[in-house]
Structures are given as structure tokens and as C-alpha cells.
Amino acid sequence: MSTGNPRATLAAACVVGPLMTLVVTGPSVAVPDIGADLHSSLAAAQWVVDGYMLTASSSLAAMGSLADRVGHRRMFTWGMAFFAFWMAVSGLSNSILLLDVSRAISGFGSGAALASITAIVAQAFDGPARAKAFGLFGTFLGAGLAFGPMFGGVLVNLWGWRSVFLVLAGVAALVLLSTPLLPRAEPARGPRFDWAGTFAFGFGIALFVLALVEGPGRGWTAPIVLASAVGCLILLLVFVAVERRAAHPMFDLGLFARPQFLAVCLVPLVLAFSFVALVIVLPPYLTSTSGLSAVRIGLALLLLTGPSLVMPAITGVVAQKVSQRALFVVLLAFSAVGAAWLTMVEPGASIGALAGPLLFLGIGYGISLGILDGAAVSAVEPERMGMAAGMFNTVRLTSDAVSMAGLGALVTAFTKSALDSDAASAFRGGADALTSRALQGGLAEAAETLPAGEVRDRSVAAMVDAYAAGLHTTMWIVAAGCVITAVVVASLLKDGKPSADGAVEAAGEPAAASPEPVPALRGDGS
Predict the structure, then answer these.
(1) Alpha carbons within 13 A on the beta-carbon side of 339
(2) I need a surface site. Which of 116, 177, 294, 346 has the fewest CB within 10 A?
(3) Which of 506, 509, 35 is nearest to 287 (CA)?
């Protein structure tokens, strides 16, 4: 095996990690401008983010397994090149259809790059140096998450929404220059790849997200929505049947019978709705109801994402003395309070008024970054840690994709329900058209189509009130979900051992103080 240059390897990893985070959080701020420029529907604009998350999450396990067979450096090079090309296509798109398709295709390159770079870092470092390398990698991931919205806001303000995708493409192209310096290992000849399980799971989740995105606009009884829901159910049943019979399944479903592992998988599902999806939902809400610019929205979202920089390290210290059960309950409590608090913030409120709920939500998520990955692998024997890690991260990323579509669907449905159709009738297309524009951040542009006066003012006020009511109702549901999950998790985790002790018993070595979410991304789990 070629050892490569360790410093160059770590530098490449610390660019790729936040790059793959920025590709989600950065464009989220640009969605209002994209919708207005390309004249897209609400569902089409949502696919700018949902499409990428869908393919990246569903392909991750498969790409990790394929990387073992073709070589990690080769797969990383292919993934980054593929990602850079389709990001460039996204930035040059002249229609929402081409943008959505190119974003979705780029997710496959992202999955290949992420699944490979973790193995490459593990090959380049040993012992304590490896732990430090992944700790630094985790720090850069947190930075990408924290500053992603601000990054997107600045680029949109300076050069427009296209610059977000073109800059990402340029950075990815620069990373390709480092590939000759990365370590190279001989491809492994592992067991037969679980193609049937991989495709059944990936397409099943894709149909589920399709139903969630298209449901609010087309109606939940529309043929395409019903067909997607039925297709999802059938494919997921096929997936379960295939995994139970496969000699080398993608998922060992028996792990979900373990209370600790089940509890660990429930937490990111809820946090996806209380944190990840909010990064996508809040920008158009703040644009339409408060008139904030992209830069100010980026600053506001820094209150939500900023705690991800500091809370994992703090949690790593606290975890030495506090049980996983207590930490999970605390982080879910922070998330529940933050979600409930957000319902009390009226439209047009200042960034200062948003600080409290956004910080609480961010702290809850930040705590999770410090314990979830270690808790997932500590739930199983050392020889099964890889499988557990791969399953957990697939669950987590799938939850992110589903939450983005699901939270948007809830806000849309509740907003339409609360909107006074008479007040919206002055707009061309009526309540449906007005809701679609508002939920893309385009309420101000829609209002300009009406002559100034009482009718416009009344219609805009009605839309703002309905939008706020829709978000508030949704956040009450999220808060209730956090509380219910806290009760369930507390009942599943009955031991009172410190979080770090659980990892020590399972792994036979001390748990790292800082989170290492990235190693868990490999499809083969090693």
C-alpha cells in the first residue's frame, strides 16, 4: 500500500468534510432567489435541497462498499470529479428542472467522496494520530455546518445564487489536485455486494420523499402521490425480506432489537426535524415575513448552527461522568424547549428575539454530535461496530432527507389551512399561488403585482399571519415529538453508566472526547 502524504491527506479531508456540509446549508439560503429567478413552483424549489440529500444519503452505504472493491483513492477521485462537474451544471442551469436533476446527480459523487475519504484518513494515520486527525476533521465539519448559511448568504448577496454552486464546484476541482498525494491501497475482494437491498432501500426512500414534496401542492389523493406512497411501502417490505435472507446484508436488521441501538437511531430522526430541516425552512420564512436579506438570514441562522462548533467538545468532557440516558434526555429537552419557544416569536421579530429559541435548538443538536456516533458503536460487540456505524449513519442521513421534505410539507399544509382565501383572492392564482410564492420567500415580489392600497396590505398581512401560524403549529408538533422521544429513549436506556464507559466496554479502548462522525460513513463500516 502507498502511504501517501499524511498532511496532504488530512488537509484534503478537512476541505471535503465542510464542503459536503456547505452543499446543503449554503444553497438553502439561495432557495428564495432561485425560485424567483427560475419561476419555479414550491415543490420544484424544495427539490433543490431534497434531491441532493436523497441521493447522497441513499447511496452512501453502496459507495462505501464499492470503494473497497475498486480502491478508495480511485473512488474518491471519481466522486470529487463527478461532484464538481454536476455542481458546475447546477450553477449554469437555466431551468428549475435541470437544476433539480443536476443537484440530485451530484449527490452520488458526494456519497462516493465521503465514503472514501474516511477510509483514506484511517489508512494515513495510526493510533493516537488517527484519533487527532478525525477530531480535527470533526471540527471542520462543525465549522461547515455553522457557517454554511452565512457562506450562502454572502455569495447570494455579492454575485447571486449561481455563485453558490460555482464556488462549490471550483473548490471541489481544487481538491482533485491533491489526489496524487493520497495513500493508495489494493482493492479488497469482499463478499458479494447486496445490490437488491441497496436499490430497494434507496428507491423506497426516494418515493417516500417524492410523496412528501408533491403532496401539499398536488393534493394527498393525487395519483402520483398515492402511487409513490404505495411504491415506497412495497419496496421497503421487499428490502426487509431481502435483508433477512441475504448472506451479507447491507443492514443487519436484528440490531434494531437492541434497546440501546434503537434509542440511538430514534434521536437523529427527531433532531432532523428540530434542526436540520429548519436550516432549509427558516430562510424563506424570514424573507417573506420579516423581509430579511440573505446576509442577515445567514447571521440569524448562525445562532442555530453556531453551537455545533463548541458543544461536541463540551459534551465529550461531560460524557465522562454523565450517562448516555441523561445526555439524551437533556439534548431532547433543549430541542423541545427551543421548538416551543419558536412558536412565541411573532413575524417581523428582530434577530435578538430569535436568539433564544435558535440557541436552544442548536445546543440540543450540538450535544448530539458529541455522543451519538460513539453511542451507536458502543451498542454492539467490537466485531460488529462497522455494521452498526454504517446503519446508524444511513438512518441519520435518510432522516435528514425525509425531514426536509416532511417539515416543508407540514408548514405548507398548515399555512394553506390558516390562509384566508378571500384575502388572497386578489392575487393571480389565488391562495395556492400566493402560498407557493410566500413559502419560497417571494411574498414581496408577489405583492408588487397588485396596486398599492388596502387590498394589497390586507392580502399581505393575511399571508404573513397564515405563514406564521403554519410554522408555529408545525413547531408545536416537533416539540411534542421531542418530548415523546425523550420518554421512549429514557425507557430504552435503563443503565446509568457514563457515556464514555459504554464505549470503553464495547471497543476496549477509551472513547474520544470529540465526535468522530465521519468514520461511520463507510459502507462496509470499517
Answers:
(1) 30
(2) 177
(3) 35
Residue 171: CB atoms within 10 Å: 18
Half-sphere exposure of 347 (CA within 13 A, CB side): 22
Backbone φ, ψ for residue 221 (5° rounding) = -100, 5
Nearest alpha carbon to residue 272 among 401, 144, 142: 401
Angstrom distance (rounded) from CA 169 to CA 86: 8
The DSSP secondary-structure symbol of 88 reads: H
Report the half-sphere exposure of 185 (CA within 13 A, side-chain side).
Answer: 18
Closest CA to 20 of 92, 88, 99, 112: 112
Separation CA 359–CA 308 (nearest Å): 10
Position 197, amino acid: G
Q: Among the residues of 379-418, which ranges form H helices?
A: 385-418
Quick check: 467 pLDDT over 70? yes
Res. 234 pLDDT band, cuts 50 70 90 = very high
Structural contact between residues 141 and 24, judged by C-beta atoms closer than 8 angstroms: no
Condensed to tens digits (0 to 9), the pLDDT of residues 403-413 reads: 877 888 888 88
What does the block give as the cell for 22? 456547505
CB atoms within 10 A of CB 333: 15
What's the mean pLDDT in 191-199? 72
DSSP letter assigned to residue 184: B
Distance between CA atoms of residues 161 and 32, nearest Å: 9
